[in-house]
Amino acid sequence: MTPDRKAGTIARLFPDRVFGFIHCPADRRDYFFHQSQLQQCVFADLAVGAVVSFVVAQGAKGVEAQEVRVDHPLPPPVRRMTVLLHE
Q1: Residue 29 lies in a domain
Q2: Is residue 79 part of a domain?
Q3: CATH number assigned to the domain comprising residue 39
Q4: Residue 39's pLDDT is what?
Q5: Residue 81: inside a domain, yes or no?
Q6: Which residues, 6 or more positions from 42, have their beta carbon under 8 angstroms from its beta carbon?
Q7: By residue range, what is the domain housing residue 48?
Q8: What does the pLDDT look like over 55-67, one tens digit per residue?
Q9: CA 48 centroid distance within chain
Q10: Residue 24 lies in a domain
Q11: Closest Cα partner for 17 from 32, 35, 31?
């Protein structure tokens, strides 16, 4: 990772408004990001807890995460099926 990039995890997602927040443990801050800042992925592929890297920059409404890349996506959730047996 280049020195100007930070590492973090997806903390919150708002799919209906296509933005979210990335938690950066290095500085203990959450950074806003919009889907327009995603690189090499789409918003629908994101999951809370996924590891990302990003650049901190001044956006229209303040400091935000830009050039967001998913470094370690989470696997899709396991779907469990319950089978009821009747005697």
Answers
A1: yes
A2: no
A3: 2.40.50.140
A4: 94
A5: no
A6: 35
A7: 5-72
A8: 999 998 999 999 9
A9: 6
A10: yes
A11: 35
Identify the bridge partners of residue 59 per DSSP, sorted by sequence position: 62
Q: What DSSP string describes the chain?
A: --TTEEEEEEEEEEGGGTEEEEEETTTTEEEEEEGGGEESS-GGG--TT-EEEEEEEEETTEEEEEEEEEEEPPPPPPPP-------
**Up-side HSE of residue 14: CA atoms within 13 Å toward CB?**
9
Shortest CA distance to 46 belongs to which of 24, 67, 76? Answer: 76
pLDDT digits (tens, 9 = 90+) for 32-45: 999 999 999 899 88
Count the domains in the chain: 1
Predicted model pTM: 0.80
Structure tokens at 63: 């400091």
C-alpha 16: how far from chain center:
15
Cβ partners under 8 Å of residue 35, min gap 6: 18, 19, 42, 43
> Checking DSSP bridges between strand 19-24 and strand 5-14, what pairing results, if any?
antiparallel
